[in-house]
Amino acid sequence: MKQFLSFVKKEFYHVFRDSKTLLMLFGIPIVLIVLFGFAVTNEIKNAKIVVCDYAKDPASQEIINKLSVNETFLLEKALLSPSQIDKAFKKENIKLAIIFPANFYKDLVHLNKAQVQIIADGSDPNAASTLTQYATAIIMDYQKQLMQNSNMPYSIAPEVRMLYNPELKGAINFVPGIMALVLQLICVLMTAVSIVKEKETGTMEVLLVSPFNPFLVIVSKAIPYLVLSLVNLTVILILSVTLLDMPINGSVLLLFGASTLLIICALSLGLLISNVTQSQQSAMLMALMGMMLPTMLFTGFMFPLENMPKALQIFSNIVPSKWYYIIVKSVMIKGLGFSAIWKETLILFGTTCFFLIVSLKKFKIRLV
Amino acid sequence: MRTLKFLLRKEFKQIFRNKALLPMIFIAPIIQLLILPLAADYEVKGINISIVDHDHSTYSQQLVSKITASGYFQLADYGNSSQGAFKQIEKDKSDLILEIPQGFEKNLVRENQEKLFVAVNAINGVKAGLGGGYLSQIISAYNNDIRMEWMQQPKFNPMPQIEVTSSNWFNPHLDYRFFMVPGILVVLVTMIGAYMCALNIVKEKETGTIEQINVTPIKKYQFVLGKLIPFWIIGIFIFSVGLFIIARWVYSIVPVGSLLLLYAYMSLYLVALLGLGLLISTFSNTQQQAMSITFFFIIIFMLMSGLFTSIDSMPHWAYIIARCNPVTYFIEVVRMIVLKGSGLMDIKNHFLIMTGFALLLNGFAIMNYKKTS
Amino acid sequence: MTSEVVIKTDKLTKRFGDFIATNEVTFEVYAGEIFGFLGANGAGKTTAMKMLCGLSTPSSGNATIAGFDVYKQTEQIKNHIGYMSQKFSLYEDLTVIENIQFFGGIYGLSDKQLKEKSNELIETLGLKSEAKKLVASLPLGWKQKLAFSVAVIHEPKIVFLDEPTGGVDPVTRRQFWDLIYQAADRGITIFVTTHYMDEAEYCNRISIMVDGVIEALDTPANLKQQYSATSMDEVFYELARGAKRKSD
């Protein structure tokens, strides 16, 4: 035990003496929280649009007013021809054009029918469909207003309640995702690199030749990153609660327990990677090229997993952070207990064991 | 010039001899380009709804069939118990609940007004907004139908109708892949370029071969060029494979605009990017450090580039950061040229800004790299 | 050995904060000499050598290498010197031939010269069967000999060797010094640091550095006489045992 502790101490020295790496390791989660909490959002805001108002009548004015007040749109009024609109799209000056034909109000009142044309820049489908929908909703609102004035009977009034996130804060969706991303990526990366470094420099052989159980040596390498990750987790939670008003509705203990499990899982994956690579460069590239984008996408917090083709959904099952994300949402936001997450926990546990067993096997083969 | 030739020969030999590296540089991006665009789709489909019907009237049944027929929703559960429905939401089996109160049909006809109760899992705000929006639209349309039924129909339709026609230019089917593939391609090329360049130089520092180089008459700019050019070529190669093979054959994306313009911009972008890698390497002493710093920048660049989320929606300070990010410009240019056919005049500003980046980053890096300490 | 001065230093000093690594070092080296730069670990040899190679800027003092000033003309210095660092610095992932060709090309040898030189080198070193193998696969002694040959491939005026024979067996060491003699015969000045005292005997003149200062500079014979010693070992021990700096 004493020997093990001395190994752990040495590993701590390695980690803490490299101030540049340390800065990054602690800096990344903080930066992510700030960015995701305040900057990155799925919502569309401040979209530049142009309104071609050939009508210039009360109806078009009213609708244009509503549009300009809405946060989503940054309005500009101009009378553009189709080729001018095309040009403006190509220059990325505007994302949407709304065209009110002449006699808009007159037609509405006398013929009970009028047209509005919306042209969207389809190269950004998300913006196009969202902006079109929002603009349409505002126009429909105006239509409803007109109808209201004639006092419509038989009204169904839906009462909508938003659960878990009444203010529709993006952070509630993102923060558990960041937790998963940060813990998984950093642990895998750092462990893999640190172990491979010893292989590369040859100090691994020295350790293997020593009387200490080599596996304990490896474990001692992982421990500083375990501690570091838990500290990172705490910082993320504190920042989310204070800066982003995130709730922690469930048991904090359960949360930390699940997090520790994910960390250990990621560390074992790092161990596995270090076993199959020979140089730091390849370990880094494997962990980064191979894992960064997939982790971001398959954890499920950027894009809904249900949208993906079945094959990819099945693939996402082997990404540990996916299960962790579910656990965090259930515990932290929905406030549920262990009974709700036992299945995911079991899967994480199983994945960890799998990684460890495979690594151990590969390790033993090398020694023999 | 001869010196440069020797440097390049050495670099290429080293890169291609590195058996572990080659798959990462060439195969991994291709695989990711094949898989990731399939995953990155914002369209909200298949929302699960649980309906609790306390009324079981004609009207309630009609509403339910309208909802299931709409195509937006999948009926997860239809029952009597609100508790049961809530459990569904807890287990993530359902995204929203519609509760129809007892006496719905009766009250609507007699009192002219009736309520419906909707509860939405709002953890994913966008999904909740859209789901709630679609449901409201369906309810509202159904409401209209009921009114039609009950009200006398005069010759003229008393309700003014505004017909909104919408069209989408450049991407009429709103195919998300058109939007994502160029962006993901850019990110992949960026990752490879930045990492490879930074790590490569730091490796020479770590092994000590850089000292040997410093003692020779190799000029600073020759050394720097010797490092940039191989990765520049590799970057262009990967981008070309991605664009002409994967994007074309798998996703049917054919660039609408000028390829010459695209490649010119890409070349400039790579110079800027590799300059960043170079700069990072001058600040790192070990590969681990270089990797951490590059990782830090890459993550920020990815998130603040408009790849996944729009930068216009960001608060002003974040928007400025996104505007200081070279990746943002390249993604915009790729999308503009490939999808819309934008021309040189349209991207004039982008060119100027990227030139600025290239000069700044490379200049700083060359200044920082000293053969004599 | 001629009387042409190829290295001249005048109170050359390097400071790192409060720590004076090299303290007002003054000496001259003549063309064609084999000059041994001795001292214990940590005495300041490598620091001094780096300044002479143009790898490090002195804090104060002057030096000229092959007639070029060490502050303002470092690039010209590099054209006229060769260097072999303590840490082996050829490319392990290139073959023997590739390393020779690379460094030869960098130093401006024409294609014809390169071909001739590489064949010559490979013959001399006996590396014919190893020529196309990666340098990583060579045993240490061969690597060192190769590194030396590459360092003098362009027939520089001076070649700087930083502990070139560390970790190498006695037979290979002897072979290495044969190479050095051959180079010296061709007129190349050899500036070598070592802490193998027997190698000191092979040099024309040596200097002994203790705690950043040169405490002795003369031929081995004169030094032995001066300190009434029978071997350089004893001379060194006399001078260095009072050293305040321990090796790091």
The chain-level mean pLDDT of chain B equals: 85
Counting DSSP H or I runs of 4 or more residues, the number of helices of chain C is 9
**Termini Cα gap of chain B:** 26 Å
Q: Please state the structural category of chain B.
A: alpha/beta
Instruction: Write down the secondary-structure element order of chain C.
Output: EEEHEEHEHHHEHEHEEHH
Segments of chain C where pLDDT lies below 50 for 5+ residues? none
Could you tell me which chain pair has the largest interface and how many residues each side has? Answer: A-B, 118 and 121 residues
Q: What is the helix fraction of residues of chain B, given as a range?
A: 55-70%
Q: What is the β-strand count of chain C?
A: 10
> Largest sheet of chain B, order of strands side by side?
2-1-3-4
**Mean pLDDT across residues of chain C:** 87
Helix and strand content put the structural class of chain C at alpha/beta
Low-confidence stretches of chain B: none
- Name the shape of chain B in a single word: elongated
| Strand order, largest beta sheet of chain C | 6-7-8-3-9-10
**Biggest β-sheet of chain B: count, sense, barrel?**
4 strands, mixed
Determine Rg of chain B (CA atoms, Å): 29 Å
Report the β-strand fraction of chain B as a percent range: 5-15%
Count of helical regions of chain B: 14
Oligomeric composition of the shown chains = heterotrimer
Please summarize what this structure is:
The complex is a heterotrimer of chains A (368), B (373) and C (248). Chain A has 368 residues and is an alpha/beta fold.
Describe, in plain words, how this protein is organized in 3D.
The complex is a heterotrimer of chains A (368), B (373) and C (248). Chain A is α/β, with parallel strands linked by helices and 368 residues long. Chain A contains 14 helices and 5 strands. The mean pLDDT of chain A is 83. Helix content of chain B is 66%, strand content 10%. Chain B has a 4-stranded mixed β-sheet with strand order 2-1-3-4, with helices on both faces. In chain B, helix 1 (2-17) packs across helix 9, helix 7 packs parallel to helix 10 (259-283) and helix 7 packs antiparallel against helix 13 (326-340). The longest helix of chain B has 32 residues, at 176-207. In chain C, strand 9 and strand 10 (213-218) form a beta hairpin. Chain C has a 6-stranded mixed β-sheet with strand order 6-7-8-3-9-10, with helices on both faces. With 248 residues, chain C is α/β, with parallel strands linked by helices. The mean pLDDT of chain C is 87. Chain C has helices at 45-53, 74-80, 96-106, 111-125, 140-151, 170-185, 197-200, 220-226, 232-240; strands at residues 5-16, 19-30, 34-39, 60-65, 68-69, 81-84, 158-162, 189-194, 205-210, 213-218. The two termini of chain C are 35 Å apart. The interface between B and C is medium-sized, with 25 and 28 residues.
